[in-house]
Amino acid sequence: MPDGVAGCVARAGAGYEVSRKVDPAYLRGDFDGDGRADYAVVMTRGGAQGVVVCRGSGAGPVVLGAGTAFNEMKNLDFTGWQVHGKSRRVARGFGVGRAPVLLGDALVLEWESASAIVYWNGHQFRWYQQGD
Predict the structure, then answer these.
(1) CA within 20 to 30 Å of 74's CA: 52, 83, 111, 124, which one?
(2) Which of 117, 129, 122 is nearest to 51 (CA)?
(3) Domain count, the chain
């Protein structure tokens, strides 16, 4: 894991562990759109999986899932993930509102039959369902 990321993960709090269930265990991108490299790390806590985003600005870690509610879920039990570049348009999801315009790179979380885009809206990370 890159320098600085381990410290960020440690600041997420007690009980968080890097997950080995999803490969790769971390992704690099500019997730908050500030021009600095950020890292997203798959973490578990108490059996629940999620993501800790470590921002290059030095701001504190952002925990999404892993026992902390994000989009009304505490367990983001995804099986694959990748970076969705900010220059790529987000396809409209099935049965949901207008697709977001990305300020930075986004995360695509994938399950067997579904996926979601996790993106920064300028204030917080948000969830956009792609399909079921």
Answers:
(1) 83
(2) 117
(3) 1
